[in-house]
Every structure is written in structure tokens, then in C-alpha cells.
């Protein structure tokens, strides 16, 4: 037995004694093993090698977007209804059916653009990603705090992000790149109007809304679908920071939102959101001046009322940030029976992207990790890959039969208990944007509905950044704002004069 290892026969009272990962007790964690007290070090020093090589691998690739985040555990409590109707009218998803039904959840909030330790005071959309551990397996709802998005076609996403990320040469974020891309993307005018208003810097994660942004579907027992948008309204209220307030906080604290969430939960002041939906019949709605599948548009609440379905409460901090928050993997493809996709192109692009990046970022067996694993039984014939472990995915009771169908043994298909939802799709295959683009109407409506101080803040924030841009970029942006509302364009123009 090596001199720094002992037999591991700990009693209960010795449970906090340090060991290595082989279960060997560590009696000297201060000195490497050396030839004489002055060295050199010897190579067979297993404890040092294990410790330092693990340290060398402490990081996994961080998220390409939404790298900076904070998370918490909690629960969803259903009302059993959607507005005044029984939830079953619209969806057979089990988590919504009974009043008082509790579903455990994990939520990760984030900023989008910068790296894992960037300031939380930056003007940026905030992520609001929720994992519902339902009795039918996991449902992930990967949303943002603003109710819309910059683009409607997923092929533009890498370019959008490159324009917002630091310049690949100078490694500095450049407003000239941001507004260059945005000025050539008219559908972003609405999102930019929200983002450069006070809504672009929530006071902290507790004081912001959540929104699914994309249009999804709910499917009932008869196999009938409705279009649906998801919304979370903070019971703590909405609070934002002006640029000046954000800068004041940032000078002293660049973790204020993580701190606020953690401390509120530690003192028992559990943040809570009313979970709501908006519903539309499943068709193209030619009577509307926007396409219901367009993620750059809000469904007006006067026409499509915001209906409560339950409440989301966060009541437990993670024990280990890396294991729970960093390794958490959410994806728009992760739905349960009774919930479905719409034909929204952005949503379909996202659905490929999330699990793809997680197989790379976390590894092929990312779904075996406790934070990502459903709380229901998992049994597949998928085997192997880095870090596969036998209890992660039980497989068949007969471990010889890892295929299906089999006449010998092994896993069997589940009996079909519900009517399939079989949407009809036909059309020519093409590359074409949607015809009802209406890029400026809602941007103008939003500008006009802001209070005076919000409009002033919006103009100030835009002008400050646009001053750093090329004249032709400024002109194109003024053009978009003018289309939204002539006063909006005029105020940006005079601010730049
Ligand atoms: C085509 C459009 C989009 C693509 C391709 C895309 C792709 C991605 C990717 C690759 C990640 C990193 C995931 C990971 O490493 O675990 C991510 C994270 C995220 N995205 Fe998107 N995204 C898109 C649009 C959106 C939209 C519209 C929203 C809001 C509704 C959104 C919300 C989020 C959130 C909240 C996260 C962080 C999830 C977490 O906390 O782990 N994304 N996105």
C-alpha cells in the first residue's frame, strides 16, 4: 500500500474525510511525492496525477449562446383549467389536467451573447428555459424574456449571432456589426424596439417575463390541435434597469442577477410566475395582418386572451452549479403527448440545433445525467458512447437482447393508447420567405405604447450605439424606424445629427 493511502474503512462520523476517486483515503493533500524534500517529483504519484489531470479537464465547451446562466429547482402547479375551460378541451398533456397537480421543474435563466462569466447587466435578451419532469417523461420549454425574436428563418441564426458576438479579430463586440446585420434584416425592427427600450435590461431574473416565442400546438384526446403561445408572468412584478442604472451596478457587481436569484431562494422568498397560454384555432388565419407562425410577432392579448394554466415556483438552489446548471440541456424537440410542434420554420431549425450541440457540448450520454434524466423509467436499446453507465438507461431485463423486434425477449413497443395526431401537409418545396411579413406594424405599435420615459430611453440607447456605426448603416436603421413610426425615425435622426 502506498504511504499516502490507507484502507478505506470509515465510520459514519468520519464521512467528511478526503479520498481520491478510487476511494483511497488522502492523508497528505499538501505535498507532492518527491525525491528528498527539494525534489524532483516522482511520476508514480497517483494522487497528484489524478487531481491535476482532472483539473485540466474541469471545463466542457460552454454554450455557444446563453453561456452565462443561473438555475433553480421548483415545481409547476396546474389549475386544471385553461382560462374558464377544462384543460382537456385543448390538451391531453397530463401535467395540465388536474387542479393542484404538481410537476417538478428545473429552470435556467441566462443572457445570450457573451461568455460564461460576462456581466449580467448587459443589454441582451434573457433566456428562460424550463424542464418539466412530467409523468410522461420530460417536456422542455426553451424561451426568452421578450415575446418575439429577431429573425423568422433558422438559416439566419449563425449570422445573427456572429454579428452580436465579438469581432473575430479584435475580440470586441462591435455595434457597427450588430446594426449592419440588423439594418439588412427588416423583420428585426420589432425586436430591436423592445431590446433597446428598458425591457432590454431586466432588473434581475425574478422580475422578468418568460415567453415560448415560437408557436406550438396543443392536442386533445380527439386528436384535434390548436395553435398555442406560452407566457410566464412574474408575481414579483416587472422591473427593468435604464442603461445608467445598469452601468452603476456593473461597476461594482457583475453577478447581480445570479446573486439575487440565489439569495431570494435561500431566504425563502420563492419567485413565482403565473403560467399562461394564448390559443388560436389551427389554421392560417388570413384575417390577421400577421402570420400566426411568425416568431417576430406578438399575438395581441385583446384578440387572443392570456389564459392562466398554473403557477411556476422556484424553491431550491442547485447544490452543484456545474452538475446542475452547466450540464443542463434543454431542447425545443422535447415534448410530451398532448403537445406538438407547429410548422414555424424557426422552431424546426431550433429543434435540430439544441440536441445536436448538446451531444457535442456535454456528450453522447448527456441524457443520463441526473439533471437531464426524466424522473420516469427510461429503457432504450441505445448503448455505448463516452461515459455510458449501466444504471443511466436500464435497457431490457434480458441484457443479451439489445434490439427490437425480437421473438426471444427484450424491450417491446408501448401499446398505443391515444389517437395519433396526423397533420396534413402538402406544397411545393421552395426557398421563400412568408408573404405576410408586415415587418413594421407591431414595432410602431410598441413605440407608440411605451410611456414617455421608455421612449426617451429607447432613443437614447439607440442613438448611443448608432453613433458608432457607418453612415449608410445609420440611414438604413432610420429608414426602418420611420416605417414603424415617422416620429420614431425622426427622433433617431435628430439624435444622430
Ligand atoms: C434558429 C434559431 C435558434 C437557434 C438555432 C438556437 C440555438 C441555440 C443553441 C445551439 C443553444 C445552446 C444550447 C446548449 O448548448 O445547450 C441555444 C440556447 C438557448 N436558446 Fe436558442 N436558438 C435559436 C433561437 C432561440 C429563440 C427564438 C429562443 C427563445 C425563445 C432561444 C432561447 C434559448 C435559450 C433560453 C437557450 C439557453 C438554454 C439553457 O439555459 O441551457 N433560442 N440556442
Automatic annotation (TrEMBL):
Its cofactor is heme. It catalyses: 2 H2O2 = O2 + 2 H2O. It is an enzyme of class 1 (oxidoreductase). Residues 403-427 are annotated as: Disordered. Residues 19-412 form the Catalase core domain. The active site is at residues 66, 144. GO terms for cellular component: cytoplasm. Keywords: Heme, Hydrogen peroxide, Iron, Metal-binding, Oxidoreductase, Peroxidase. Its EC number is 1.11.1.6. The keyword Oxidoreductase applies. Residues 410-423 have a biased composition (Basic and acidic residues). GO terms for molecular function: catalase activity; heme binding; metal ion binding. GO terms for biological process: hydrogen peroxide catabolic process; response to hydrogen peroxide. Heme binds at residue 354. This is Catalase. It comes from Nostoc flagelliforme CCNUN1.
Amino acid at each position: 500500500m502506498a504511504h499516502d493511502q490507507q484502507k478505506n474503512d470509515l465510520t459514519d462520523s468520519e464521512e467528511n474525510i478526503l479520498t481520491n476517486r478510487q476511494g483511497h483515503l488522502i492523508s497528505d493533500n499538501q505535498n507532492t511525492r518527491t525525491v528528498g524534500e527539494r525534489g524532483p517529483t516522482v511520476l508514480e504519484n497517483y494522487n497528484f496525477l489524478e487531481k491535476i489531470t482532472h483539473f485540466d479537464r474541469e471545463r466542457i465547451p460552454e454554450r455557444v449562446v446563453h453561456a452565462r446562466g443561473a438555475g433553480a429547482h421548483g415545481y409547476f402547479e396546474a389549475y386544471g383549467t385553461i382560462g374558464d375551460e377544462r384543460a382537456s378541451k385543448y390538451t391531453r398533456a397530463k401535467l395540465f389536467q388536474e387542479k393542484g397537480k404538481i410537476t417538478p421543474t428545473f429552470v435556467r435563466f441566462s443572457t445570450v451573447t457573451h461568455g460564461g462569466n460576462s456581466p449580467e447587466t448587459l443589454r441582451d435578451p434573457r433566456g428562460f428555459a424550463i424542464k418539466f419532469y412530467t409523468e410522461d417523461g420530460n417536456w422542455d420549454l426553451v424561451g426568452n424574456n421578450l415575446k418575439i425574436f429577431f429573425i423568422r428563418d433558422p438559416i439566419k441564426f449563425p449570422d445573427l449571432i456572429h454579428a452580436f458576438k465579438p469581432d473575430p479579430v479584435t475580440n470586441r463586440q462591435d455595434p457597427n456589426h450588430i446594426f449592419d446585420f440588423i439594418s439588412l434584416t427588416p423583420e428585426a425592427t420589432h425586436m430591436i424596439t423592445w431590446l433597446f427600450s428598458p425591457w432590454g435590461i431586466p432588473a434581475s431574473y425574478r422580475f422578468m417575463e418568460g415567453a415560448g416565442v415560437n408557436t406550438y400546438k396543443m392536442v386533445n384526446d380527439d386528436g384535434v390541435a390548436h395553435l398555442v403561445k406560452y407566457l410566464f408572468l412574474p408575481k414579483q412584478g416587472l422591473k427593468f434597469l435604464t442603461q445608467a442604472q445598469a452601468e452603476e451596478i456593473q461597476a461594482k457587481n457583475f453577478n447581480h442577477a445570479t446573486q439575487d436569484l440565489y439569495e431570494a431562494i435561500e431566504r425563502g422568498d420563492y419567485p413565482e410566475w403565473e403560467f399562461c397560454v394564448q390559443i388560436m384555432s389551427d389554421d392560417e388565419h388570413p384575417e390577421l395582418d400577421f402570420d400566426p407562425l411568425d416568431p417576430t410577432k406578438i399575438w395581441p392579448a385583446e384578440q387572443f386572451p392570456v389564459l392562466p394554466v398554473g403557477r411556476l415556483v422556484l424553491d431550491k438552489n442547485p447544490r452543484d452549479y456545474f452538475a446542475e446548471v452547466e450540464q443542463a440541456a434543454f431542447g425545443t424537440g422535447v415534448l410530451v403527448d398532448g403537445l406538438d410542434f407547429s410548422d414555424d420554420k424557426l422552431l424546426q431549425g431550433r429543434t435540430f440545433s439544441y440536441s445536436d450541440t448538446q451531444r457535442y457540448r456535454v456528450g453522447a450520454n448527456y441524457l443520463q445525467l441526473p439533471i437531464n434524466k426524466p424522473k420516469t423509467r427510461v429503457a432504450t436499446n441505445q448503448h455505448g458512447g463516452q461515459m455510458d453507465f449501466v444504471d443511466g438507461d436500464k435497457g431490457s431485463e434480458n441484457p443479451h437482447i439489445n434490439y427490437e423486434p425480437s421473438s426471444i425477449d427484450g424491450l417491446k413497443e408501448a401499446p398505443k393508447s391515444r389517437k395519433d395526431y396526423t397533420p396534413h401537409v402538402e406544397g411545393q418545396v421552395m426557398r421563400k420567405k412568408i408573404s405576410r411579413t408586415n415587418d413594421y406594424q407591431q414595432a410602431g405599435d410598441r413605440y407608440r405604447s411605451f410611456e414617455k420615459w421608455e421612449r426617451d430611453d429607447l432613443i437614447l440607447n439607440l442613438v448611443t450605439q448608432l453613433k458608432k456605426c457607418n453612415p449608410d448603416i445609420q440611414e438604413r436603421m432610420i429608414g426602418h424606424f420611420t416605417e414603424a413610426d415617422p416620429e420614431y425615425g425622426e427622433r433617431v435622426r435628430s439624435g444622430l445629427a
